[in-house]
Amino acid sequence: MSENPPNDSAPGGEGEGEPDPLERFDDIVSAETDRDPDLAVIEAGSRTLRAQSGPPDADVPARPADPEVDAALREVETELATRWGETKLEPSVTRITALMDILGEPQHTYPSIHITGTNGKTSTARIVEALFTAFELRTGRYTSPHVQSITERISLDGAPMSPERFVETYRDIKPYVEMVDERQEYRLSFFEVLTGMAYAAFADAPVDVAVVEVGMGGSWDATNVIDGSVAVVTPIDLDHTDRLGNTPGEIAVEKAGIIKQGATVILAQQPVDAAQVLLKRAAEADATVAREGLEFGVVARQVAVGGQLLTLRGLGGEYEEVFLPLHGAHQARNAAVALAAVEAFFGVGAEHGRPLDIDTVRKAFATVASPGRMEVVRRSPTVVLDAAHNPAGARATADAVSEVFGFSRLIGVVGASDGKDVRGLLEAFEPVFTEIVATQYSQARALSADELAGVAVEVFGEDRVQVEPRLDDALEAAITLAEEEGEYASAGVLITGSVFTVGEARLLLGRG
Description:
about 500 residues, globular, eight-stranded mixed beta sheet, six-stranded mixed beta sheet
């Protein structure tokens, strides 16, 4: 069988298996590595930064404390690293369909909510999961990419799969994966194997409902072998244009592929050309459509300590005084989309018009966390992480930072991936960044700090740009700027540009 991709993409690589990764940052940065960028973000930290913060979030697990479990997980990561990463694909569901067939179609043993779009998918999935959990349903959630640990991608009952169970699930399906590999022109990819693991784990649990985020697109995405009774489309914008299209309308053609016959479709506000494509597909599939701004939406919102207070209009009525511990208007809209999706799942607006229990909804929203999305990881100076990686996401983040924090001076630490619209991303941040520190994360997929700085100088001007290729040095430089005395006492730092930059920064700041 062929190991070569049918397109020009970033090569896959070998996994890292050396012990004590927190002592290896210098080696990792200085060494050339072709490690697959879609495996666990490199655990790093050659020194203790004075920026170090509090305890790690339970929702973003650290390496296993048990050496035997850690070794087993590294072995799985190493094996997965030999497969195509998420930037390498042959657009079809042929291989995943074959794997599901040989596993006995586990993805059909539970109902699913399927989520696509350009931005907001993971946060929306997390809110949906929190709502189902509050209503005492067993949940399975599959999202990508991860912030720090590969085990984040598959959650059961609202928590990332344990390393032990992750390893066990991989070993359970490995013989069947190898059988499919032998019969196909191309081996199953990294993402396809993980998707198979998620669907098998959900069936084994068993879960009452699965919340599944697409990896890329929709029609040919590996997740698209489920029968999502509710299809959610978050806002569509330009990203992955080399694979999906150059306009929102073209991209919507692929995204619309998750809309199944007779499903309920929850549509966030969309560009006109994207909306036309999605509504046409919904009509062809005889699907019921609920649209943000018409059938549901955000009625009112106000900034609150630690988040925002919302009034949401759902399919069954209004939900007042809902506290969401996430920042930004975009997260309020994600909340409205998630609420409508859960209402649709329970038949609100179709079988009956009663709203969901308001106390349960409030309880659910109050528990929501979305690591790496407008996440405050330090105070004095305030350091914020956000995984915005395209212009639309950057604009939303810039608006949220301005609304919530009111920094007198904001230092941006930016590390981006090669192939992204870096100019568009930087232009979105230019009005809010006083200075920018151009850097890079420590994987082959990263855009070099010098290349990033070249674009940044054109956008910001030379006086506002500093270059620090090492991420730990970039964090130190930004915090030093933010700690300057005088009129800049209320300065802050925003670390952004890629989920991989955020993941590595999180580790360096003591959050994982």
